[in-house]
Write the structure tokens for this entry.
Amino acid sequence: MLVAALIALGQLAGADGLFDAAASRLVRLSGSTMTGLLACLGLVLLVTAVLNLDTSAVFLTPVLIGVARRRRAPVEPFLYGSVFMANASSLFLPGSNLTNLLVLSSHRPTGGTFLAQMLPAALAAPIVTAVGLVLIHRRALRDGGAGEEDRLVPVRVGAGLLGALLAAVAMLLFANPALPVLGVALVLVAWRARRGGPSPAATLRALGLPVLAGLFCLSVALGVFARSGVLHVDRLQHAGSLAVAATAAGAGVLINNLPAAVLLSAGGHLPVKALLIGLNVGPNLAVTGSLAVLLWWRAARAAGERPSALSYSRQGLLLAPAALLVCLLAISL
């Protein structure tokens, strides 16, 4: 429910031109292609933290692709950077990733408490990922010129910006922000529809409900299976944080991180921080890891790009383990 509401608010932000306004400024940004990439990754971090990584995957993937093209820069660092940074930036708030909500379902803290507890890892993951992307694409980032002198799109203060701000406040203040954020989304979607914005039907299509429903059913089935005691997931509680994070990352790649979150948190005895790190950072290993990657794939193809599962994993096998280890070190300190 919370994820659906956040994606709906993201669509409002897109309809209000907020992402276009950000893109127009990123295109005109002076400096090297590396500077442009890092600025784009910063935008992904901000939107992921406030409006959920699935929102980033749907709405920012075409933005970053467009920025690369208009800056006459290689597209690949921007294309893959959009999804790697979305996964890596999803540890800031419970609503930043649905897996956070699933793991915390039995003892959900307020957003402010969660942020304070996870801040070292939440900062470490995107920093390591950004540095890794720059190193992987260092040759390509030498190419490309400065941005075009294009029309600067003004920032519109409307339903999209108001919804994002209200959602951020709700997620910081409430232990269960789903209903407040859903209420904000319903009111603003209806209001914008009356004023010529996206129709409720278009908003439903953007949510990708069939995929969400399929993953939800699989998650419920695995949760029941885990609670039956057949898998003995709780044996991992004595294995250490590294083993828990690695298991979570591997399970996410095998069955997607949403079902994996339900499966591994069923007993409620595994170290939560390590579990969250594995489930959030682990999907950078393979395209099967998270719903956000599936949404990214669809958005990239709609924008005329042809992402490669092999290229994704070649980069992810370098980025994910490094980010996972640094995150675990950060929370241990």
